[in-house]
Design goal:
- This protein is of the alpha/beta class.
- Helix content is about 30%, strand content about 25%.
- The chain is built from 10 helices and 19 strands.
- The chain has an 8-stranded mixed β-sheet, sandwiched between helices. Strands 8-2-1-12-19-18 form a 6-stranded mixed β-sheet.
- Strand 1, helix 1 and strand 2 form a beta-alpha-beta unit.
- The radius of gyration is 20 Å and the shape is globular.
- The model has no long low-confidence stretch (mean pLDDT about 95).
- It binds flavin-adenine dinucleotide.
- Flavin-adenine dinucleotide binds near residues 9, 308, 310 and 339.
Length: about 375
């Protein structure tokens, strides 16, 4: 069967991309090996969405994603549990204060609503936060959170309304080309043709690249998360503690619209691989740190833990753009720990790329996210 574009992956990037391509008047097909949308890494995200990054491309994309997500319910009627709680980075170490305060002018120059706040304001924002050594922090009130699964299902319904087709339980096993031009994909069940193929395969994008001899540095990296029982709401912002701890870097948590605290941590060193089995080390590790920061969490009970994969790249930024060896193949891969917040904005960019209608900001973003860039150091606010 023939389509205008085939998208590999019905995840955080693939589903909104189907919507964006269909909005351009084209007929996309999305293929996913799982049974439903969002069953790859989308459902493992804890729901944080922010535009307060430190690199221009991510700021621009993050801002557009926030516009889409924060207005979705009024535009389309679906509840996606958008909560404008903001993001806060409490500061206890002078070196962290210097780094984050130094970023604020750059973030403001991109129109972000972010400010440095005093210790007393931080104590109002996160009641009960440990005051010992607290230097204040940063707060960006326009960031927030969503339910990943409610959001992807809203996007899925909208994409279908716009004419996108989906095939589930079908694995892409090969890419077809003719004289350097993509012509379609092969799956374990059939063959489909299209002049454009979008790689939105998340942690498995490296395998998609290999199908045409392209080495994409997307490496799966295991991260665990958890959710508590609901309790009366007492804070709503995402709290990000960037201090390192035993075998870990930062950890972050927020209270969702149901009053549940959702949290995860960044292991150090990273745990590369595709192991999604929950461990017995995660909860003691993260809970000790959270209770030191916010002692009133000590009696709350954890309901469920899970483990998922970040599709990591060497510098923490995505790989987005046309493949140089095979015409018609677009990569929208390597979302690291930010695919939920980057997905909707990036999807629109991919839609414009496919119909050759990119705008000025897209060029800044495409340069920053080029799959062929030389990797520099990790983004400051990864
Ligand atoms: C614990 C944890 C917490 C996180 N928290 C956040 C957060 O708060 N905010 C945030 O923005 N991000 C967060 N993330 C990261 C986020 O989940 C990912 O960045 C994002 O889901 C990646 O999107 P994707 O579309 O690239 O991949 P996915 O959502 O995994 O989609 C890729 C899809 O491709 C399919 N696929 C792959 N290969 C094939 C093939 N050969 N054939 C057919 N189908 C294929 C897969 O089945 C999958 O459905 C978190 C991740 C974890 C693990």
């Amino acid at each position: 069967m023939s389509y205008d574009a085939i998208i590999i992956g019905a995840g955080s990037v693939g589903v909104p991309t189907a919507m964006a391509i269909a909005e351009q008047g084209l007929k996309p097909l999305v293929i996913d090996m799982n049974a439903l949308p969002g069953q790859g890494e989308n459902k493992h995200a804890i729901g944080g969405v922010r535009a307060t990054h430190s690199d221009p491309g991510k700021i621009l994309i993050g801002r557009r994603s926030l516009e889409i997500l924060s207005t979705w319910e009024e535009r389309h009627g679906d509840c996606i549990e958008w909560l404008r709680g903001g993001y806060t980075f409490p500061l206890y170490r002078q070196q962290d204060a210097d780094l984050l305060k130094g970023l604020v002018p750059i973030q403001k120059s991109y129109g972000l609503n972010i400010d440095v706040i005093k210790p007393k304001d931080m104590q109002e924002l996160v009641p009960g936060i440990n005051p010992e050594g607290l230097l204040g922090g940063t707060f960006s009130p326009d960031d927030g959170s969503i339910s990943p699964l409610l959001t992807i299902n809203a996007f899925y319904r909208r994409a279908k309304e716009l004419g996108a087709e989906f095939k589930f339980k079908e694995k892409v096993t090969g890419l077809d080309t003719n004289r350097g031009q993509i012509t379609g994909v092969r799956t374990d069940k059939g063959q489909y043709t299209a002049p454009v193929v979008v790689d939105a395969a998340g942690p498995y994008s490296r395998e998609i690249g290999k199908m045409v001899g392209t080495e994409l540095t997307v490496i799966p990296d295991s991260h665990e998360a958890a959710i508590t029982e609901p309790v009366k709401s007492f804070f709503s912002c995402m709290v990000v503690d960037i201090r390192p701890g035993p075998d870990s870097k930062n950890y972050y948590f927020y209270q969702n619209r149901h009053g549940q605290v959702v949290f995860c941590i960044t292991p150090d060193p990273p745990i590369f691989g595709t192991d999604k089995g929950a461990t017995s080390t995660f909860l003691p590790q993260v809970c000790a740190r959270m209770v030191t920061l916010l002692p009133r969490l000590k009696n709350i009970r954890v309901r469920r833990t899970w483990r998922g994969l970040y599709p990591m790249t060497p510098d923490g930024s995505p790989l987005v753009g046309w493949n140089k060896e095979v015409k018609g193949l677009v990569h929208a891969a390597g979302m690291c720990g930010q695919g939920l917040m980057l997905g909707p904005g990036l999807a629109e960019l991919v839609g414009r790329l496919v119909v050759s209608k990119t705008i000025d900001d897209d060029e800044i973003i495409l340069q920053e996210f080029s799959p062929y860039r030389k990797f520099k150091e990790m983004e400051a606010l990864k």
